[in-house]
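REQUEST ID: PR-0412
SUBMITTED BY: lab tech R.K.
PRIORITY: routine
TASK: structure prediction, single protein chain
INPUT:
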Amino acid sequence: MGGYGLLLGCFGFGAILGAILMPRVRQNLTADGVVIAGTLVFAIAVILNKYLVWNITNKKFCFSV
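STATUS: complete
OUTPUT:
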């Protein structure tokens, strides 16, 4: 699977998971809490993407040459 297909699959999975979990999250958090939690989850995902995915793809391409 290519990188773009994986990206689209992750967006779809996140949308489905968000739709399933949103009622429970709304019971426990205010609107501001939901925004803060979403921002923190997004920041963690960006950091993990930078350090994990980038290193894995660099090693894969370095050894394939």
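NOTES: Residues 3-64 form one domain.
REVIEWED BY: pending
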